[in-house]
């Protein structure tokens, strides 16, 4: 389920009281002309959960990331979850794949052992360079997307780069803030099934952040002791 947002409501084709079999044929040319894409994409299982719990559809509380914090939703994961086992066993009618969005980079990962390994390698690399002095995207996002083209699904294989456009039809399932704080570093490491051991430099950085507020960012600035300049005719007592 999703919605189309029109700036000019007069462009929306009318719904007749009798037959609307051709509605998509009337709607699609307008969408293409106005460059309107789906927004607020919702899994039908999420929609069913919201309907059952009285949560307003397409509201902020109905977003998948919000539902993932809902205790009832987590408790009923076997009914409303992502059904990863079903997808892995090839039993899903519309199998999804994981899309990892990092800036303009999008990786599509199949739900296979090799796909899991590709994701693990990607996350390990991000963790290894988490505190580096390089400009990086503010957020790492995970999506579930369901490419309907069977040929394209086969081409994805275990891992494939893709255009960010594919995320228009995806559902964001997880976000990870990439600001260099200890909390964000630990959250990133917790995403990995097998976290790599900390390097000595990372151990030094982590120890410097322990005990500080969670939102304190690591600043890679070496503390230097300044020696007063010696004035002419004066000595320095050490």
TrEMBL record:
Annotated InterPro entries: DUF6047 (IPR046110)
Full protein name: Uncharacterized protein
Native source organism of the sequence: Bacteroides faecium
